[in-house]
Amino acid sequence: MSELVTGEAVALELRPARLPSRALAVLLDLAVAVAVYITVSIGLVAATASLDEAAQIALSIASFILVLVGAPIAVETLSHGRSLGKMACGLRVVRDDGGPIRFRHALVRGAIGVIEILLTLGVVACVASLVSARGRRLGDVFAGTLVVRERVPTARGGFVPPPPPWLAGRFSGLDLSAVPDGLWLAVRQYLTRMQQLDPQVSWSMAERLAADVAARTGAPAPEGVPPAAYLAAVLQERQAREARRAFSNNGVAHNGVAAGGSVGVSAPAGPYAPPGGQPQPIPTPGPYGPPAAQPSVPTNTPPVPPVAPGQEPAGDRPGTGFVPPA
Questions:
Q1: What distances in angstroms separate CA 275 from CA 222, 267, 279, one per listed residue?
Q2: How buried is residue 50: exposed, middle or buried, by Cβ count under 10 Å (0-12/13-18/19+)?
Q3: Are 253 and 265 in contact (CB under 8 A)?
Q4: Is residue 15 classed exposed, middle or buried when 0-12, 13-18 and 19+ CB atoms within 10 A define those classes?
Q5: Which positions ≥6 away from 281 have C-beta within 8 Å?
Q6: pTM of whole model > 0.85?
Q7: At residue 136, what are phi and psi to the nearest 5 degrees?
Q8: N or C, which terminus of the chain has less Cβ within 10 Å?
Q9: Whole-angstrom Cα distance, residue 244 to residue 231?
Q10: What's the pLDDT tens digit per position in 261-281?
Q11: Is residue 145 helix, strand or coil?
Q12: 114-173 pLDDT, tens per residue?
C-alpha cells in the first residue's frame, strides 16, 4: 500500500500497479491501436489512390499520430485515466494526490510514452518502472501521475468478533450517549482488522481506543479484562440497544421475556474465563428478563352462582336489552 496525502491533509491508501499488470494493459492498448491503425490505413489507401505520393505519405503520418498518440490521450482524458487495457486489468491513472487526471496529464504521459514505449519498444519504461518505488515510468514522473489498482482483493475478516461470553450484559447500564459516531466507527474497524495487525500494535491501539471510550462513558474496563474484549462488549451492547430500539419502533413484540428481570448465565471455561473465581450471574435488564408475574385475582370477587341444568350461563345468553334487578 502507498500512502498519499491530499491537499486537504487526508491520507489515502492506494495500491500502486506493478510492472506485469501495467505491461499487460499496455500490450492490450497497443493491440487495439494497431488494429485500428491498420484498418484506417487500408481505408486511406483506397480513398487516396488518385493522389500523389507526397500526399499519401502525409496522410499516413497524420493517421499514425492520431491513432497511436492522439487516440490514447483522448481516451484517458475522457475516461479519467482508464483505457481499454487498464479497464481489463483493473487499473486507473490518478494524480499524485489521488484525484482524477486531466488533459494535460494525459498529454504529457502520451508524448513521453512515444519515446519510452513506441521508439524503444518499452525498454525505457520497464527500467524506469522497476527502479521506481511505486512502479512509475518517466511519463508518470513528468506528469505527476500514478497508476493504481482499482480491484483490490477483499480481506477475509469483515465481521466484528463477538466478546467473551462472561462479558455479555456486563455493560447493560452504561451510558453510551456521549460516544461520537466517529469513535464507534474506529472501534468497529479495529475489531474487524485486529487479526491482521502486529500483536504489539494491536494491543496499543486497543488500549488507546478503550481509554477514549472509557473517558466518554465514565466506566473503564474492569480489572483483568483485555481492552479488545472490553471494546467488543461495549460495541455489542450498543448494537443490542439499536436493535431493541428498532424493534420497539416497528411494534415487534419480544416473546417469552419481560422487562425488569435477570437471568443467571454461567460462562464456560476457556481462555476467556474471567479472572479470579467462578463467574457471577449476568444481569440482563430490558426485554430479555424473566416473564412478568401474572396479576392475582382479588379475593373479594363475588362468587358465580351455579348454573341450573339445562340453563345457559349468563355470559353465553343472547342480549335482550333488559337488565335484571341488582
A1: 10, 12, 9
A2: exposed
A3: no
A4: middle
A5: 262, 263, 264, 265
A6: no
A7: -90, 140
A8: C
A9: 20
A10: 333 333 333 333 333 444 444
A11: strand
A12: 999 988 888 999 999 999 888 899 999 999 999 998 875 554 545 677 787 777 777 878
Distances (CA, A) of 237 to 20, 75, 172, 216, 265: 48, 52, 7, 15, 16
Please report where in the chains the cell 464456560 appears, as a residue: 268
Extract the C-alpha cell encoding 138: 518517466
Any idea which residue has 424493534 for its cell? Answer: 247
Cell of 68: 497511436
What secondary structure, in 3-state letters, does 9-76 show? Answer: CCEEEECECCHHHHHHHHHHHHHHHHHHHHHHHHHHHHHCCCCCHHHHHHHHHHHHHHHHHHHHHHHH
Residue 114 makes CB contacts below 8 A (sequence gap 6+) with 68, 69
pLDDT grade for 13, boundaries at 50, 70 and 90: low
3-state helix, strand, coil in the chain (%, to 5): 50, 5, 45
pLDDT at 23 (0 to 100): 92
Grid cell, residue 109, equals: 504521459
For 325, other C-beta atoms within 10 Å of its C-beta total 3
**Residues 6 or more apart whose Cβ sits within 8 Å of residue 99:** 6
Bridge partners, residue 149, by sequence: 91
Task: Tell me the chain's radius of gyration from C-alpha atoms.
Answer: 37
* pLDDT score of 158: 57
